[in-house]
Amino acid sequence: MKRNVLVIGAGGVGQVVVHKCAQHNDVLGDIHVASRNVRKCREIIDSVHHKHAMKVPGVLEPHALDAMDVDATKALIRSTGAQIVINVGHAFVNMSVLQACIETGAAYLDTAIHEDADKICEAPPWYANHEWKRRDACEQQGVTAVLGIGFDPGVVNAYAALACQAYFDEVDSIDIIDVNAGSHGRYFATNFNPEINFREFTGRAWTWQDRQWVQNAMFEVQRTDDLPVVGQQTTYLTGHDELHSLSQNLDVPNIRFWMGFGEHYINVFTVLNNLGLLSEKPVWLDSGQEVVPLQVVKAILPDPASLAPAYQGKTCIGDLVRGRKDGQAREVFIYNISDHADAYAEVGSQAISYTAGVPVVAAALLVAQGEWDVRRMVNVEELPAMPLIRLMNGMGLPSRIREGSADRLLD
Amino acid sequence: MKRNVLVIGAGGVGQVVVHKCAQHNDVLGDIHVASRNVRKCREIIDSVHHKHAMKVPGVLEPHALDAMDVDATKALIRSTGAQIVINVGHAFVNMSVLQACIETGAAYLDTAIHEDADKICEAPPWYANHEWKRRDACEQQGVTAVLGIGFDPGVVNAYAALACQAYFDEVDSIDIIDVNAGSHGRYFATNFNPEINFREFTGRAWTWQDRQWVQNAMFEVQRTDDLPVVGQQTTYLTGHDELHSLSQNLDVPNIRFWMGFGEHYINVFTVLNNLGLLSEKPVWLDSGQEVVPLQVVKAILPDPASLAPAYQGKTCIGDLVRGRKDGQAREVFIYNISDHADAYAEVGSQAISYTAGVPVVAAALLVAQGEWDVRRMVNVEELPAMPLIRLMNGMGLPSRIREGSADRLLD
């Protein structure tokens, strides 16, 4: 049993995570929130109290922290007595937070893969470039590290593992489809940090096809599906974290990721990208100033958190799995539908933050209660899927399975 | 008679102006070129010598100058003995260069209206906000100042005055149409300094309609014409310098400016503008850096000068004039066609710089020879048009007039 949680990161996902931890503080114990900007931690804590979200009276405290500083992070883990660290900070801090957990024995959970600021779309598998280099260290220290337990990566990995184990004898393909059919009503905005958002699409799209890594250009390959609730949706082959562990951990020849984009988004993205405005490499102005164009684009776009109050509509994220069972061809779609306005009403964030933040808190509960406290580094598909899925069914993220004309809650 | 020319500005137009001055240095005398960046002056001078463009042996010298510094500009005018100053520098330096001319007695010529860096599309008439405030000073000092003598503004003003004087009893409308039917082969680029180029389109489009100033949004109003040589072209109602003097100096109820844009240009412009990336107002990055987005866009776009070698195709700029003559309705189109590759072969710049730079040198010749040395501040429509038009016919910028099916050289 582990108790006391340190949440690192106070953006849109951090907002969801802290609210959900507060709703389960009878199990999780003290809740601490740390960010470079302590004001953002305080605002989240205020919103928790405003919604009376604490299940039982307890500790909920803000901290200023530069999570790139391993010693400072270790000191905060020790001073707070946190046995579980939920890292929902910037993707650049994963490795330093992980190191602090290894050196203090705290369990480590994150929702996205590590990135180095100066590298985009490295050679696959991405986890081998960073996190997996600490596998042996976790094993030796008996440290639990659950990588990528947001929705995608995360829940979609659990769906993939479940399909292989329970629904198929042999799986030919897993197509992870992520559609935001909602609208924020602004000319253009990204749903999370633009710097991280755009980095997903400016490089090559690596996917796993016929048991090999294949590169495509972004927006080169598309598909259209009739999805539950959100209907006909066009999505594009995209590189994404989960392919880099699923391809190594599951015996499936084709694992692809598809993200939905509207024509307007693609047009704006294409213009910015072709002009070089999404580049992470600095340029020099006439004034002599050295400026990273992508950081300027970030500065002029709406703050993603500011979109939540007006966000309407639903998201649909799931795994379309094809293969054979008992000699018959089979196809299932395992998925979740989330509603932006419902998420905002409950925790003050839109559904994209909600779907990323709820799973990592469910995972923290499973670690706290021992079921996922595996004392080594794992990706989600290596853990039992149904405990996570059942727990989330009661936490606002129900999973469903559609097969032919049948569509039911997965429990 | 005036002699010795100081050219201020060493961009694409400066390149044309210096070449053309050199081709006429028997009349103009010594040629001096000044810029903040003296290297650019030297490169232009090297290209003049490379093309053996000096008509007679003579002085052709580079100078470093901050033209915002009135005292430094006066000192350079005096030390060079320049009696004619051709200002083709940044639009922000007009007022300081003009002041230096007033205080030294040198004739002043420019090709575009003054702008203050922090103001976009001020209330009309624009000249009254800046240059015209120095009219009395020019009159008192007997200083010749010819404002806006590029192609547009400039030659199109001469066409307008000529039409009113020689072709019509009464003019209903003058539509100035500017089409670049050429191609630079790049994804996106502006044909001159992006900072100045975009500023023309980010504000309101002020035009003179029914003897009043009317505001439209950019790209709100379009027309399509079948133009000589370049054929069917769509142009958009745009605010432009010349409307602000022609409306005051000619008795014409409708004076409008139309600029041609391709759909791709409009799309890129619209995306950048809607996102706020064309703003001259600074934003703050996460790093704390203060950055002007428009300057970043300038930094990532191709240097306009770099487009010239590959530029193909032609420009068409002219005045479509409608009215009555001897009781009959009449319509004439007075225009020039220029070729990008021809301009590059002659002076190393594309046709957009060429059409701006040749007229100001023709004007300098008319000032040097006395015909335009009026010892006061004027816009081009206040001067005799035919001497300019005839001179340019022999300088690479022939003017033509089309009426019905007839189309002839204007001389």
TrEMBL record, chains A, B:
Pfam families, alphabetized:
Sacchrp_dh_C, Sacchrp_dh_NADP
Query: Residue ranges of the Saccharopine dehydrogenase NADP binding domain?
Result: 5-146
Q: Which residues form the Saccharopine dehydrogenase-like C-terminal domain?
A: 150-396
SUPFAM superfamilies tied to this protein:
NAD(P)-binding Rossmann-fold domains
Q: Which PANTHER family match?
A: CARBOXYNORSPERMIDINE SYNTHASE
Q: What is this protein called?
A: Saccharopine dehydrogenase
What is this organism's lineage? Bacteria, Pseudomonadati, Pseudomonadota, Betaproteobacteria, Burkholderiales
